[in-house]
Amino acid sequence: MSTDKKILILPGDGIGPEVMTQVRRVMDWFEKKHSLGFKVTEGLVGGASYDVHGVPLTDSTLAQALDADAVLFGAVGGPQYDDLPFDKKPERGLLALRKEMQLYANLRPAIVFEAMTDASALKPDVVSGLDILILRELTGGVYFGEPRGISDLPDGQRKGVNTQVYTTNEILRIAKVAFELARKRGSKVCSTEKSNVMESGLLWREEVQKLRDADYTDIDLSHMYADNCAMQLVREPKQFDVILTDNLFGDMLSDLAAACTGSLGMLPSASLGDPDAQGRRRGLYEPVHGSAPDITGQNKANPIAMILSYAMMLRYSFDLGEQADMVENAVKNVLNSGVRTPDIMGPGTAKVSTSTMGDALLRELDKS
Ligand code: IPM
Ligand code: MG
Question: What domains are there in the chain, each with its CATH number?
Answer without folding.
Answer: 1-109+265-368 (3.40.718.10), 121-261 (3.40.718.10)
